[in-house]
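Field log, afternoon session.

UNIT: design team B
ACTIVITY: writing a sequence onto a fixed backbone
BACKBONE:
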């Protein structure tokens, strides 16, 4: 079972911080895909200063964004640890001018702000000499020229012993991440796809991880053994089963890339957020700090704007669950825990009114959440003696609307009941 705090958190902030911010290139993938040589990629170590890194500032911004948890890249696929590790020299402590344990400061600051601590850890390590020792699923590919040397051996020969050594190394580093920084609430794996569940040593591996904290939540990137789903960059249309979290970037990049100015607007981010919570999921919104640890003002403004909106509309966000189908109401919605209040998200300014279909309950009161203004409504059509409800036309005008997403609060008599039939011929009147 997923701990309660997670499904009620609604928003998390993802932080991709690493040496890739020095040149402003894609995290890890840039050398893996040959856009830069491995040597040149690693030269970024010399430019990683963290000179303005202030974990307290990060935590303050995260809190102001309305998020209840954060997830930091403690180590991306490039293998560069943001924490002090005994098991490798490849860390910002040992190999960069920063010489700081970023993870330590991050975890401390989050806790002071009552924000749950999440650690991203890449299962893949494209820098570790023992990593490219086997093939995915143990299958040697027919065409060896397709093999990437960072992932697997290029000569077709697998070395199980070396792979075992790599797994031990991973376990050691994970013990550091999960054991040296107080209680970790969430472990966010990435890169499970390069090996099978068996190769990762599952399910025993999961027991090992949970031994550090039995309540630890692990995302889905664990070869079928994770606790919740993590759709990425493309918003789900069908609700993912069980607990889920949608991770996405504020622009097109996970890490800091100066040339990427393709930012989503505040309004678009708020809409995405309401879309997620309408389908019972969380949003994990990513930012990419610069190499010095400062956060670009556009990214900061988006987080603050989202936080302001959440703060104004708190009761429609926290303590709520998945809303009604969009066939009833197109903009998305949430329902209070007691099932007696429905919150509609209104994306655009209406012409004269908005229409909610299929509501069976009597209505106690309808208000605009941010202003408290009470709205009138009219019920048109319906065949009450057949239990087929009419449509509820709520008189919401453009003047009543919030500058971003408007929330209309509908208080109901009794627990919400929606009509789901196909209509009927009225055989008696
Ligand atoms: C992808 C990428 C990675 C990024 C992650 C975030 O799986 O491998 O670069 O960190 O998504 O979800």
């Amino acid at each position: 079972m997923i701990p309660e705090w997670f499904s009620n958190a609604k928003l998390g902030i993802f932080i991709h911080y690493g040496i890739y911010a020095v040149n402003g290139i894609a995290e890890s993938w840039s050398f893996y895909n040959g856009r830069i040589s491995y040597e040149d990629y690693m030269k970024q170590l010399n430019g990683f200063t963290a000179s303005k890194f202030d974990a307290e500032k990060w935590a303050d911004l995260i809190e102001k964004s309305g998020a209840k948890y954060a997830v930091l890249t403690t180590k991306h696929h490039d293998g560069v640890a943001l924490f002090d590790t005994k098991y490798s020299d490849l860390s910002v402590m040992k190999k960069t001018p920063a010489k700081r344990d970023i993870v330590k400061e991050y975890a401390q600051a989050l806790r002071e702000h009552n924000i749950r601590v999440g650690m991203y850890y890449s299962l893949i390590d494209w820098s570790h000499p023992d990593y490219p020792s086997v093939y995915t699923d143990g299958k040697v590919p027919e065409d060896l020229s397709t093999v990437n040397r960072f992932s697997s051996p290029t000569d077709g020969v697998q070395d199980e012993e070396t792979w075992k050594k790599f797994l031990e190394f991973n376990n050691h580093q994970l013990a550091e991440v999960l054991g040296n920084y107080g209680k970790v609430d969430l472990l966010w794996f990435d890169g499970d796809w390069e090996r099978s569940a068996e190769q990762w040593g599952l399910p025993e591996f999961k027991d090992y991880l949970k031994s550090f904290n039995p309540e630890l939540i692990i995302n889905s990137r664990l070869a079928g053994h994770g606790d919740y789903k993590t759709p990425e960059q493309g918003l789900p249309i069908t609700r993912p089963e069980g607990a889920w979290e949608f991770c996405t970037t504020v622009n097109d990049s996970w890490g800091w890339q100066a040339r990427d100015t393709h930012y989503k607007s505040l309004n678009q981010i708020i809409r995405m957020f309401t879309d997620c919570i309408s389908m019972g999921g969380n949003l994990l919104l990513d930012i990419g700090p610069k190499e010095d640890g400062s956060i670009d003002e556009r990214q900061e403004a988006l987080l603050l704007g989202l936080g302001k909106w959440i703060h104004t509309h708190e009761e429609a966000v926290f303590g709520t669950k998945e809303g009604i189908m969009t066939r009833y109401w197109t903009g998305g919605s949430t329902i209070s825990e007691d099932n007696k209040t429905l919150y509609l998200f209104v994306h655009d300014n209406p012409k004269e009114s908005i229409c909610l279909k299929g509501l069976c309950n009597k209505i106690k009161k309808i208000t605009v959440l941010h202003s408290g203004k009470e709205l009138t409504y009219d019920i048109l059509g319906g065949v009450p003696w057949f239990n087929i409800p009419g449509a509820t036309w709520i008189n919401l005008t453009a003047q009543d609307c919030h500058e971003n997403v408007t929330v209309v609060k509908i208080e109901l008599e009794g627990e919400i009941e929606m009509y789901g039939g196909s209509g009927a011929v009225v055989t008696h009147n």
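LOG NOTE: Residues 160-179 form the longest helix (20 residues).
NEXT ACTIVITY: expression trials, pending approval
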